[in-house]
Specification:
With 631 residues, this protein is mainly beta. Helix content is 6%, strand content 55%. The chain has five helices and 35 strands. It has a 22-stranded antiparallel barrel. It has a five-stranded mixed sheet with strand order 3-8-9-6-7. It has a two-stranded antiparallel sheet with strand order 1-2. The protein starts with a helix and ends with a strand.
Amino acid sequence: MNRKIMAASLAVLSLSGGAFCVEAADMPVYTLDGIVVTASRVPEKKIDSNADVSVVTAEEIEEKHYDDVSEAIRHVPGVNIANQGASSQVGMSNQIYINGSKNVVVLVDGMRRNTNGNSLSTADIGDMVNMDSIDHIEVLKGSASTLYGSDAQGGVINIITKRAKNDGVRTTLRTSFGNESREKYSLHNEGREENVFWNVDAGKELQGKYKDGWGRRVINHLNAEHYNVKLGYDLGNDSDVVFNYEKYTSDYIRPNSGTNDTARARGKKDNDSVSLQYKAKLNDRLTNQFSIYRNNTHINDNYTTSYLCDMKMRTTGISDQLTYTMDRQTITGGFDWYKDEIPYYKGTPDVEGTSITNTAFYLQDKIDLTDRWNVTPGIRVDHHSEFGTHTSPSLSVGYKQNEKTNYYINYKSFFAAPSLYHLYSSNGNKDLDPEEGNTVEFGVNHRFTDSLDGTFNVFHTHAKNLIDFDRTTSRYKNSGKTNANGFSLSLNKEFSRHWNASLGYSYLHMQAKAGENINNDGALPESTLHVNVSYKADKFNASLDGRGVMNRYGSKESPEMRNYSSYWVWDMAANYHFTKNATLFAKVNNIFDQFYTDVGSSYGPSADPTQWQGWYSAPGRNFEVGMQFTF
C-alpha cells in the first residue's frame, strides 16, 4: 500500500477515535433514530431495521451541491461508481456496484427505474439531476430479493422525492459557474394549497473540456436540460394519489475510445418517465399502495461513425402492495409485473423488437417473538418469460438487546436474468443461464452515546453462472462461480452544535473458481475509506469529504495499472447565507489534483487509444461558485 495513503488513513482514524470524547449538542444529522422504508417497505427506525441501510439527506444534497444521484451516493461505504469521465451524462450511464455486485435495483418512490438492453449500466442515475426534488436517498446494501426482485443481488437504491406537508409556496432559484466552461441554472417550486401539493423542477447544464490530474486536456461537451412535475392530492386519513412526470435531454461530445483519444464521438439522450401512485389507509391495520409507471430511454451514441449505438428502451410496470399490521406482527405482500422492451436498436437488428416480462408475487411476515427477538421469513416467486419460474426464499432474525443495540442475521437467495443485449445482440448467446446464488450477512446497529452511533455489516455471497464476455468467441457466456466476502462499518459523531464527522470503511474480496482475487478486473477496490468533517454556524457551513481507494488491482496483463491502484480524493463545499433567503456557495472537487481513474483498465494511462486500449482519467481539480435565492 502507498505510504502516503497509509499515513493519511491512520491519521484520520486516530483523530476520529481521539475526538469521540467531545460532548455533543443538538446538531441535526441523520442518525439511527431516523426513519427508513427500503429495508422492509414499511416505515421503521434505522436502528430497528435488520439491514445495512445508508441515507443521503436533502440537507446533505443541498449543502454539498451534488450534481446527480451517482455523485450523491459515491461516498456511501460499499458503493462504487465506475465513472468514465467528467460526468456520467456524457456517454453511457456509469455502472453501479454494491457489495461487489452490478445487479442492483434502482427505485424512485418505490417504483422500478432499471433499464434492460444496455449491458453497461443498471439505471441512468447519472441523468437523474433534479436534485432539488429529492427528500432523501436510501441505499440498502445486501440482497433484497423478496421485496424488490431477485436481481437485487447487491442491493437497492431508493430515491424518495419531496412532498409539501404545510400550506404555502416555496421557490428556489440557483445559478453557478465553474472551470471546464461549466454553467448550471435551476428552478424548483414546491407548495401546498389545502389538499393539493406539488413539485416543479427545471434546469440546464453546460460543460466543456476538462483536465485530468496530469493536466491533459480531455474532450468533453454537454448541453443538458431537465424538467419534472409532481402533482398530488391528499385524500385524508394518510391516503393520497400522486402523478409524476420527468424529462431529460442532452447533447454531448466525448472521446471516441478512452480519455486519451483525440477523435470525437457525438451523442444524444432523450429520456422520460411517467407514473401514477395511489396510497390508501384502509383501516387502522391495513394499508395499500398501487403504482403504475412507464420509463423511456433513448440514447444515440457515437452517431457520426459506423460504431454508433442508437437504441430505445422502455419499461412498463404495475405493482400493488398490502401491509397488515398487528400488535406483534407485520405482514407485507403484493405483486409486481413489468415489461422490458427494445422498440428500436439501429445497427443490431436481432435486438430490435425483443422484450421480456416478469411477474412476481411476494410475501413477508415480520413476527416479534418476544420484546427482543424477531423473525422475518419471506418468499418471492418470479415468472420470467424467458427463464420460467424461480422461487427466492429469505429469512431474517433480529435481536434487539436494548434501545441502543440491534443485531441481525439474514439469508437471501437471488437470480438475475441475462439482459436483452446479452441474449440477442450480435455478441449475444440465447443459451445463457441466469446468475443464481445466495447471500448471508450479519450486522449490528449500535448507539454508543447520544452523540455517537455506528453500524457494522459482514457478508458472504455465493453466485454461479456468472455472465461474462468471452474474447475468444466474441460472445457472452456463463463463466463459472464466485464467492464475494466483505464487510463495512460506519461511525457518525456529533462533537458540538457546530461540528460533526463520519467515518466509513468497506472491504471486498471476490474469489473466482480458480482462486484468484478478481474484483471485476480492477473496477472495484479491495478497501475504501470515506471521511467527512462538517462545520455549521448560523450563516456559514462547510464540509470536507475524503475518499481513499486502496488496492484496486487491474488485469494480469497490465502491471502498470497497479501503480494507480491506491489514491485519495478530497472534495470541499461551503455555503454563506448572507440573508435569510440568499446563499453564496462554492465547491472544489479533487482539491489536490489527484490523477486517478474510477474504471479498471487492462492498460496504463499512456495506452494508445487507436488500439482500443481504453484509459478513463477522472477530472483533476475543478471548482464551482454560485448563488441561490429562496422565496
